[in-house]
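Quick one - first record:
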Amino acid sequence: MKAIRRFTVRPVLPEPLRPLSDLAHNLRWSWHAETRDLFQSVDPEAWAAAGCDPVRLLGRVRPARLAELAGDRRFRRRLNAAADDLDDYLTGDRWYQAQNEGLPAAVAYFSPEFGITAALPQYSGGLGILAGDHLKAASDLGVPLIGVGLLYRHGYFRQTLSRDGWQQEHYPVLDPNELPLTQLKEADGTCARISLALPGGRALRARIWLAQVGRVPLLLLDSDVEENDLGERSVTDRLYGGGSEHRLLQEMLLGIGGVRAVRAYCRLTGHPEPEVFHTNEGHAGFLGLERIAELCARGLEFEAALEAVRGGTVFTTHTPVPAGIDRFERDLVARHFGPDAELPGIETQRILALGMETYPGGEPNLFNMAVMGLRLAQRANGVSLLHGRVSREMFAGLWPGFDAEEVPITSVTNGVHAPTWVAPEVLRLGARQIGTQRAEDALTVGGSERWDAAADIPDQDVWELRRTLREQLVLEVRERLRASWRQRGAGNAELGWIDGVLDPDVLTIGFARRVPSYKRLTLMLRDRDRLRALLLHPERPVQIVVAGKAHPADDGGKRLVQELVRFADDPEVRHRIVFLPDYGMAMAQKLYPGCDVWLNNPLRPLEACGTSGMKAALNGCLNLSVRDGWWDEWFRPDFGWAIPTADGPGTDPERRDDIEAAALYDLLEQRITPRFYERGRGGLPDRWIQMVRQTLTLLGPKVLAGRMVREYVDRLYTPAARSHRALTPDAARELAGWKARVREAWHGVSVDHVETTETTATAELGTTLGLRVRVALGGLTPDDVEVQAVSGRVDTQDRITDATVVPLKPAGAPDLEGRHLYEGPLALDRTGPYGYTVRILPTHRLLASGAELGLVALPSDELVEQTGVLLR
């Protein structure tokens, strides 16, 4: 019989066990081994049945067992020690509290998804896992972050396979009362609510759930409330589902509703108001509009409010392709803003102007969330050095007149939260070398360039650790594979072969990620005969574990999954290659440590960062990857292999796949498998172990989320907080007025004459030239501009590369025609073809970059012909 109503019955814990509830509802347990061990000891069988989720565990434990534990002095001592440790973690000073003054009082971090733990399935892939790791690292460092997201009633889909290998999606209903969440309550005990106005006098209401991630509160908005109509209740039904209007409402709720939720949380708890708002990808971009509306309601004009909001906003882009950005029809956006809908105090045209693609090649009727995010943020970044470069090129149209390298988008390379992803066995080995506390500090705070203690671990210990982790993966794979085949309709009598799947002594390769076409799940199948030969080699076999989900609407991705599954179903090779459905955090935490090699073969440069290889590296796994994302930045032959790319503009895609697949097979056949199976005098693969040690020593400290968050604090959050404080209402009005005046007058700004003390086409290294420039400033003054000399080597088209920029100084009063003279030295510090130019940029003390306005004046072509002398 089916129940007509569902509700949750919470356990009543005996008084001595009350701290268990606090421990269960702070998600620090998800990365704190001692707390997880404590919960496992409550009831090992119930712990496994609850999926290692403490909240579900406490709902399953028998009252008699609870009474028994309440009387167990040893358990109570462990419980009180864990509770005291959590209290010390939450209240004690950490890295952030030891820094200099001037740091933000609080930072609000908005993301459409958060991967904290498998017990809170609110993520689909890398963006969410990165956001979860960002929150955890901020907690470990003591950074006063407030996370903001949505609570999806179905989360992301669960994946199974049909008998013929086709992906099937399932959307189990999540009951928030069974998750590690609490509702934010008003002082009178009622649930806190936020509301958005919709066209036609309707409203979208949401309650606020709180997940405590260590020291960091994570606010999750849930529209499934009785006050909403059916359509509004479904706004937070699932992650990345529905049509355009559904997605727009989700993003309005995340951005606008998220700011309102932050205000409610700070009002009710006394938490400091954020000085910095961090938009993790464009989905939350509407948060800037809500903050502008707040300031306008206090009497600030729109232009001044825009400047004030920009100063305290950081925008992180995660996509290297325009197709990955959310874009909405102009009319759809217009309908949801204005007098009859949300933010009635702001003219709809002003809102639309922030997201319109008003640059060459843009779509005039599309509202671009990333473009709005960049226009509403004074500081922006990509997520690896290469991705920063790609982003500057992709968005260069927003800063016309500037070379791509000067577009004000920097980069902070992603990192991963080591305590979440490092296997307990690896952590114990590190603690044995340097002590538990030092090992924990190294993994969380980071800061060292090298982990030299890894160099002292004996070879035998390294190799035994690697085999132990590989053996655990083999057992995990067999269990998951058996469950998958049963879901596909196989009976137990058909599945005896699974007991022989994988071998703990065989070189194991992992490949797991989302399945868009650019990640090339099936590149390994390009030459199936060569792959079979690798899998079945009599002396040097390899085995491959593959996992990944295709987006429910991506039939092309589903076909890739099916192609891989059908190959892995072949009885000839199925003991050497497996596809595991329903890839998620729980699977990943077994997969990364158990692999010897982590494979990544995207189409370069379409992988913004790609953090899965980082998680593998922290467990001593070696990377085999195309030089894309973070691997382009940190690759060294000491700890992995780079797959050569054929990414020239004239390369046919099919031929490119053939070339890169052949390079992959060559590396496996000629370099990787021989090194793994080669034995030294002691019977160990000495050279392989040395690469594992180098990975831990040199790569480990770089890939930490602690390093990443410290960079955000130093390079983005703190400067943004300073801008926020400097942009008082009067200062914001001044900046807005100055920008309007500069834009109005810029047509009259020009470089009129350039001369140097050197007129020949050659000069000696070390020579300093005198540069004299006459400029017209129209209605502006020398205080409004900076005149610069830009010099450096030149290429065959006379483009300056690796430029040096030197400000020139005004010399004397303007001439009779109102032109100003600027002078300065030009040092010739490099040999070879050399050139210079001059330019004029707007300058103001409250700008974060000279390119911020997208205005620049350069010498005219006629002036270049009269003046330009290349020095060779």
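second record:
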Amino acid sequence: MTNSHHSLYDTLLRYMPQGYVEFKVIYDDASEPVDYEFFEVNPAFEKIMKGKRKHFIGKKVSSALKDFEYSEREWMIQVARVVSDGGTVTFEHYSRRNKCWFEMSVFSQRTGFVSVMFHDITPHVQENNALKQLVNVSHRFVSTGSDLLMNQQFLDQIRDFTGAKAVALNLMEEDGESYTTVALSGMDEMLEKSLDILGFHPVGRKWPMTDQRRDLFKQSNPLVFDGIDPLIDGALPKRLVKNLLRIFSLGEVVLFKIEQDGVLYGDLTIVMEQGKQANRLGLVELYLVHVLQQLTKADHQVGETKKSMFDGFGTLDLECIMAFNTRQVLHLNETWERVLGFSLDELENIDFLSLIHPDDEVITEAGFAELEERGELFRFVNRFRTIDDTYRSIEWHCKLQEGYIYAIAKDVTDRVQLEEKLADRDRLLTKLSDQIPGAIYQFELLPDGSFNFPFFSRGFEDMLGISAEEVQTDASLVFRRMHPDDYPLVMQSIDESYRNLTIWDAEFRLLTKDGRTIWILGSSRPEKIAEDHVLWHGYIGDVTEKKTYEKEIEYLSYHDQLTGIKNRRYFEEALERYDDEHFYPLTLIVIDINGLKLTNDAFGHLVGDQLLVEAANILRNKLRTKDEVARVGGDEFVVISPNTTLDEAKQLSDRLGRLFHEQTVEGLPISASFGEAVKYDSNVELAEVFNLAEDRMYHHKVSEKQSRRHHSIQIIMRTLYEKIPREEAHSQRVANLAGKLAEAMGFTSAEVNEIRTAAILHDIGKVAISNEILDKPGTLTESEWYEIKRHPEISYNILSTVPEYVALSEIVLAHHERWDGKGYPKGLQDFEIPLASRIIAIADTFDVMVTGRPYRQAKTIDEALAIIKQEAGKQFDPSLVDVFFEKVVPTLQQ
């Protein structure tokens, strides 16, 4: 490398944002990589590993990585594979040390060295997870409802001045047998983690009022505990409590009862960080006075309402009792004076109904008729004259009982005037609502159980294929379109929203008019019109495409794309789930499929993929029901076996090994190396168990590697002969000719045998070339010739995997090189070509000419010899041609 190029190289390494490290490979006596020495690192790598350059350069990985997290050792496994198998490996890796995702590229630029690049892809991964997070946020909002929004600021203030980790507000249910967590401060830090990590939703959750908790509440305020255990009392699984304590470092708990006159309304629970005490608890008690005032005020209002015979209407303004037949007013409350300006005496001495606007007399009579028929009248509006001759709009809610009208009303003049002013805008909004994707609607459920859709936009019609007129006639048509499996859940969610006045949110399937099934996402907010009368305002949209995408994303995120079994991400999450005493002893079996690179080189990557698929099928179908399996690397699988001893795991490994060997791909039996390790209790980290299983697998792999690969070569040769029968005879003839020429050159018997063996194996790479090309009778195309010319390199790749064949692989690689440098694959010339390769080249070419090929007619021996002589100094070593004619050709003529 020139100085200018070296300077540019250094500059790139120094300023590139990706981390870069180059290792020098350390080999043992058997030429196997045993360790790696840091040779070069760039500043970005120092930043990633949080260490200085001097701490790495010249150090061995085996010692340098002792201080690293387990996750940093994971990518070193990929380094070892590149050194062993060659090529480039790119994969995603999560670093627990850095709390971020990297895209790792492992490759070798020069012999004896291997490089690794780190590219931070955390933003990309976070973007891919955005949809899942959005669903969590939506679910959390629906679960908490309005109570959280009403009480959040109050709890935030308490958390702020007490220094608490979290503050929760719990309110008793009417039955006194349970209580509900209605709000939680500290949501950003705690609830988000509990949702994502533990699947635990505290807000909106109802808890049983246990005897232990009742006993605790007999004590005086405040109640102070060392931890949350006294408050749990079996309400949560022990494993969940253990994880909560471990993740959030929870400490002292201070509990204030919200109680007055012997009535328990709930409690305020303050949770501190471990090692800290709460501040300003006296101020908390003052805040509770405010809470009690609000709660007792609500109770007081309900009591007044019942005494006034207006059950369910206590929050409205105007009261009126009227005889139905005579229309005589029997009672008005004082609020009417403020609304109409007349005194109560004046209102009682005039005809009350004479104050109705003349234009509203007809609708008022119609209202009386509806009230007589139904016994109830809701949301009826007419106008009444005031003392200054203006008119106020009054909205009525009426019940007819035993000849008397009991009515509650409110002044809605401002609302009506606003509605009139916005009439044009409403028409515009209606037009817009008809144009947006999805549909806007109102759904009404009446006290008698009947329902209807007061409004829905055109998108509703387009989606369902049902017109507004049809729905107005029979609203149940909408529900008949629901998928039968989803209908019960939708009705249950509507009932829950109806009873609790919580936001309705559901995802369900609809059957369209043309027979399609679509996914619908619906959401609406309920409005209580009167007792047992609720109106929802909402939106629905077609989310079929999104649902399909979600399912694909969910499947791909936890499944290996090639084999269909679970992937590494699932495996890592499953480890956390299984790391529990309930599953001990917990066994991990690491399985590495042997010879994948050899299979790829010999038969192509499609066959290599098939090898992995067949192995995965055996694991999927033959494991026990309780076992889980995942593909965690290119050729590596892991089995998680709960409640399994080491002996049982070894028996399972033996059984799987036999099943693998019985299954062949392209004549090759599936071979695998196994390693088992067991976790018996919580004293050992599961990461250490995985490392031990992997170490045992590698030990078995190394001890079996030589005999296995030698056997694989024999199987590949047998496969080649079955695929191309003429190759067996061709190989033998070339070996005989090459042996004779080697003997004529004065080679030793050992050297002659080596050349004969190389000649036997010289075309082993043709096993990866299709028969359509090898047996094509016509002229080969340029692309077909390119495939033919690949076979020396394929032969080299296959043979070089077996140490005793490494020397032969070099001979085979060069047997199509030419003396004049115009051969392939490297374009070597004259003495750059190994002597054994030059000998085999003459024998191979001669035999091909005299026996012919599908695309070339056979020549006579004399014609072939003439070409050999003609090519001396061009294709062939001229001195070898001389010896060939002098000592080998006479034996042919005999």
